[in-house]
Amino acid sequence: MDEALLKDLREQILINWSRKGQRVLLLAWRVLLNPDVEEKYINAPDLSQEVLAELISDLILVGMIGIVDPPRPDIPEVIQTCRGAGIKVVMVSAFVRL
Question: Looking at the domain assignment, is residue 75 inside a domain?
């Protein structure tokens, strides 16, 4: 992936989709041969960042999906109830840098 394509992807995701409230999924794949993945890595809850970086390197971009996920109608009332009970409500989203 060259810098121009990476810039276009960032702009598409950040400007056109994320700012419109869409959740963005980037789809990619890579063939892993048996020597690439040792059994101890499969379903391991605490993979090191180094192992994860290795497993997700050399991925082939398949596409992107933008999902509109509006809040359920009862959410404002739930938030108001939580705040009234002294609960601080926050929304947490993960951002993965391309």
Answer: no
